[in-house]
Structure formats: C-alpha cells, structure tokens
Amino acid sequence: MIVRVSKECSELGIFIAHTEVVNLTNGSLHFEEEMQKLETSFDLESLSVDPVVRAYREFYWRLGIDPTKTRPSGEALRRRVARGSKLPRINDIVDAGNIVSVKTLVPIGLYDLSKLVGSPTLVLSKGGERFNPIGSKSETLESGIPILQDERGLVIHVYPHRDALESSVTNSTTSVLVIGAGVPRIERKLVINAVEMVCDLLKRIGGVKTHEIEVS
User: Fold this and answer.
1) In the chain, which residues have pLDDT < 50?
2) Domains by residue range for the chain, with CATH
3) Which of 10, 44, 61, 108 has its CA 20 to 30 A from that of 71?
4) By the 8 A CB rule, do 20 and 35 touch?
C-alpha cells in the first residue's frame, strides 16, 4: 500500500512512516508485562523539557489546538502513567501501539486494512467532511485540517491525534496499517524506529510486515 502525503501537508512539515502488518491474531493482555513495567517507569518533571513533547506541542499550536487541553497522544499516555494511573487495556494490537507511544512519545495510528478502500492520502480538509471519532459524536470538519482519507473519501484520522470509528481495530482485526506521525523538529529516524517497535511487538501475535517501513 502506498500512503501519500499531499504537497500542502508536506509544506507544514508533516511526514509519516508506515507499513502494513498481516496474519495477526488479536486478543488481550498479551503485553501485560510490558505495560506493567511502563506504569512505574516515568515522572512528570521530565515531560515539560522533553524536546519531542515540545515539537508536538508547537505543531498543535500551529493547527490552532491548545496542547495543554488536548495533549499529543504520546504525551497524554506518558502523563497518565507518570501520575500513577494504569494504561488502558483495549486489545493486543492497540496496546502495542500505546506501549510504543509511551516509550517514544510518537503518536501511532493503527487502522484495520479490511475497512479501508484503496490507498490513504494525507490532505488538508476542504471543509464539510464528516468525521466519526472513536468515543465521541460525529462532527463536520472545518477547512485546513490535516486528515487521512481513503479513496472513497472516508476520514479515518485527524492528524495527528484522533482516529475514526469506521477504521478502528477490533478483536476480529487480522491486518493493520501502522503509521507513525512526524512533525517539524522530529527526527525521521525516531518515527521510523517507533513503527519498527510496533511491528516487533505485533510479531508476537503472528504479525508479518508486508514491506519495509516507508516514509512519505
């Protein structure tokens, strides 16, 4: 699968690392040991000065999002464990992405390949697109928002922090598109490594990469 990033998104400094993983057997609690270790590994003080956190926060401000109210996903998960709370246990595939986001602070997107039509493209919204976020009500998007759409126009992601219900991973998911979200001042190597870490975890539940990680 080729995942494209439009010129206008590239001009914002957006890039993504991606691959597909197939042959998965999804379940729950397969990564419990890793999650328990992470829940005792971090503190809040280091987050405020972390250059990765700062880079994603600056990008949020550029999009008009207040990152003190809507945290970048990696930071939000890291804060959660630093405050003594447990990570959410969703299913093995989603848990793998969350583990890597906590470790690297890179937002990880996981999308059920069977629910996508064609190859997705990251574009700026024209305004009027419908988006059905996981855990929230359906909404109509304004213009100028980075979104990931499949070839039928379905919005599967609002970049880099909200995923759609229609392409979400469930217990019956057997193949996924894995995306690491890059923004200005984030090294490409970090995002590539984050996607590789997800793939390594997914190998433990049968996952096989269909191709090497690509950067768009």
Assistant:
1) none
2) 4-215 (3.50.40.10)
3) 10
4) no
